[in-house]
Amino acid sequence: MATSQRDVRNRIDSVKNIQKITRAMEMVAAARLRRAEQRIEALRPYADAIRRMTRDAARAAGSVPRVPILTEHEQTNNVALLVVAGDRGLAGAFNSNAVRAGVAAGREQGAEGRTVSYYASGRRPASSLAFRGLDPVQSFTGFSDRPSYADARRIAERLMAAYVDGDVDQVEIFYNGYISPLTQVIRRETLLPLQRATVLAEDEQDAEAGPDGSPRRITVEYEPDPDEILKRLVPDYVEISIYRALLESTASEHGARMTAMRNASQNASTVIEDLTLEMNRARQAEITQEILEVVAGAEGLG
User: Fold this and answer.
1) 121-178 confidence digits (pLDDT tens)
2) Ordered structural domains, the chain, with CATH
3) What would the pLDDT profile of 1-16 be if each residue is shown by its tens digit?
4) Listing from the earlier edge strand, what are the strands of the sheet with 183-192?
5) Please, which of 45, 163, 256, 275 could form a disulfide with 94 given CB 3.0 to 4.6 Å?
C-alpha cells in the first residue's frame, strides 16, 4: 500500500491537534468579542452625540472659523489615508479587506493627480502596505486587541498635526464596521477638512419627526458662540471618530477570527472523517492481502 495505516493515523492525530487549537482560539475570540461589543455599545451614544454636536455647531456657525484645524486648504494635493486593521492574522479576510479598500482609494486619488500618504493602525496593514511598496508614514501597533482612548488620541494628534502643518490637505480613514460576528462592512470616512467631513453629510436618524413626517430640528442657543464651541469640538470629534473606528475594528476582528476558527474546526472534522475512511480502507486492504497470502500458502502445501 502506498499509504500505511500508521501514516494515516499520524495524519488524523495531527489534524485533531490542530482542531483543538482552532476550537480554543474560537472560544477565546468569542470571549473577547463579548467584551468588545460591550465597549462599542457604551461608546456609540457618546460618539454619536459628539458627531451630532459638531454637525449642529458647524451649521449654526454658518462659516467655519479661520483657525488652522478648521481651515480648508485651497487645493487638495496631498491625502492621508489611515488604514485600521489588526496586529494578528487568522481572521479570514478581515485585514486584507481594509488594506484593499485603502489601496483602491489611494489609486483613485493618484489617478486624480494627488499624492497619497498612508498611515497604518495594526501590524498587518503596516506589513501589507510595505509589501506593496506603499510604506506607511507612521504605524501604530500593539493595541488592536484592546485599544484605549489614549491610542486614538495619539493617532488623532499625529494626523491633525500633519493637516495643520500643511503636510496633508485631507484625512480619510478605512476600517471594518462591526455588524455581527458574521458580518463586517468596510467603512470609509473623511475626517478633515471639516467642510468635507463625512459627519456633515450624515442624516439625523435620531431626530424627532414633525407633523409632516420630516425631521424636527431643535433650536439650540450656544454659550459661548458656535464658532468658539466648534474650535473645541473638532479635536474631540476627530479623536472620538478614530476611537470608535478602533473599537469597531476590534470587534470585527474578534468576530471574523471566531468565524474563521469555527470554519477551520468544521473543516478539520471533515478531514478527520475522510482520513478515518481512508484508514479503514487501508486496514481492509491489508486484511484481504493477508487472507490471500494464507490461502496461497495453503494451496501450495496441498
Assistant:
1) 999 999 999 999 999 999 999 999 999 999 999 999 999 999 999 999 999 999 999 9
2) 5-22+260-301 (1.10.287.80), 28-203+220-256 (3.40.1380.10)
3) 456 778 888 889 999 9
4) 138-140, 115-121, 78-84, 170-180, 183-192
5) 256
Cell matching residue 221: 442657543
What's the chain's length in residues? 302
282 near 1, Cβ under 8 Å? yes
Q: How far apart are CA 81 and CA 75, in angstroms?
A: 17
Q: How many CB atoms lie within 10 A of CB 16?
A: 14
Residue 15 to residues 18, 21, 91, 104, 271: CA-CA distances in angstroms?
A: 5, 10, 19, 38, 8
- 3-state SS assignment for residue 30: helix
CA 207 to centroid of chain Cα atoms = 29
Residue 92 near residue 25, CB atoms below 8 Å: no
CB contact set of 223 (below 8 Å; sequence gap of 6+): none
Query: For the range 134-137, what are the long-range contacts, defined as Cβ-Cβ under 8 Å and sequence gap of 24 or more?
Result: 134/103, 134/106, 137/80, 137/162
- Cell numbers standing for residue 160: 491633525
Q: If you count DSSP H runs as helices and E runs as strands, how many of each does the chain have, helices first?
A: 5, 5
- Beta carbons within 10 angstroms of residue 211's beta carbon: 6
Identity at 48, one-letter amino acid code: D
Written as one letter, the residue type at 202 is: E
Strand partners, 188: 174
Q: Return the half-sphere exposure (C-beta side, CA atoms, 13 A cut-off) of residue 184.
A: 30
